[in-house]
Amino acid sequence: MNMFEYTTEDQKDFIVQEGISMLQSLFDPQNQGFFGPRGQHMFRNAALLLMSDPAGATFIDIPQCFTDPEFVKQKLKYVTDKAVYDYWTKEFPASQKSNDAGEVITWFSSKWGPFIANTIMRNTLGQVKSGFNIREIMDTKKIFLVNLSKGRLGDINANLLGMIFVMKFQQAAMSRQDIPEDQRQDFCLYVDEFQNFATDSFESILSEARKYRLNLIVANQFMTQLTEKIREALLGNVGTIVCGRIGVTDAELMVKAFTPTFTAEDLTKTPNFAAVTKVMMFDMPSAPFTINLPPPMGEANDELMKTLKVYSATRFGKTRSEVEKEIESRWSAAEKAKGSEIGGPEDAKPQNATEAPINAETPKPLMDTSGSPNTASGASQASNTGFLDGWLSNNN
User: Fold this and answer.
1) Alpha helices of the chain — where are they, by DSSP H?
2) Are residues 124 and 1 both part of a single domain?
3) pTM over 0.90
4) Which of 61, 118, 232, 315 is most exposed by smallest CB count within 10 Å?
């Protein structure tokens, strides 16, 4: 999954701003300056530099921009934004003359340590071409399941992936402005423990996503897990509220939504497998009432689950060796080209910073003109018959 993948130039600024919000939520949730204006400025220019390359780049390539001059030189020839070009040819080289230049780069690059050192994260975020298309999933009503187990990934890695997925769904939803509203298909996004993935920009999803037919169902344990900004946006925009048994602190806050039918004491004494709810029906909120929660429906089928996992990996995934080879090739390309080029970064500057270089290519869209997703390369593309098709034919 590539966080820096985009279909229009307008989406680049959205990706950069969301990236800054994610890093702030991870490393500076209280806005104490641990990831302040300086870090944001470095990330912004590095991200715009990487996204200018038509060959693509990824989130984990950010540290390379500050530790590998040849890597930057390879990207500069595609830059058409004068502000970004001046940063890498003037401002950043000048900043390296200070005594604390090395410490600043180490401080900034260390933020990527948990992601690059973790093999799963590095291989997941290091792919230039995503194996699936969120917009295509939404428009064709497909089911997309994401398991962000903290026991396997760790807290910070699971939170980052969750934030990226929420951002990609928001980006895909807003890209629906290119089709009439009556043609937009409803898509439901379920987010459990959503406080781990909610940045300050999450309020814009709550207030704007409905017109793009993105329906949000979010769940969390207690209200103090949320920042005040997100909590107010949640209570002000959500039409349907389902509240199980909660503590005294949350009851004093949530009782406002269920008054006068229920009191705060009622919310703290709700029995097991029951809840108090207020539902939006026919564009009007209903009176609060109680409901019984149904038990789990259906029976687990471990064999089918394993089969679906293998099928998904076969059709949409890449092998670990393929991904690691791609990352290594991308990071070592600048070194290989070092002896073949003459001149400094200035020689690569376009004649007009507002015009694209002659050799620059338009970034490929996430979906081709036929509407089919850009799936991963491999044996699955060579045939229309996938793993699940063969499994079904053998068991019929």
Assistant:
1) 10-27, 37-51, 64-67, 69-76, 82-86, 92-95, 101-109, 113-117, 119-125, 134-139, 150-153, 155-174, 202-208, 228-237, 248-258, 264-268, 302-316, 320-337, 379-382, 387-394
2) yes
3) no
4) 232
Do 182 and 154 meet the contact criterion of CB atoms below 8 Å apart?
A: no
- Per residue in 56-70, pLDDT tens? 889 999 999 998 899
Domain count, the chain: 3
Range of the domain at 181: 133-224
Taking alpha carbons only, the member of 57, 59, 95, 60 closest to residue 76 is 57
Bridge partner list, 188: 215
Q: Tell me: the pLDDT tens digits for 157-166?
A: 888 898 899 8
pLDDT of 358 above 60: no
pLDDT band, residue 372 (cuts 50/70/90): very low
Residue 336 lies in a domain: yes
Termini Cα distance of the chain:
35
Residues 175 and 259 in one domain: no
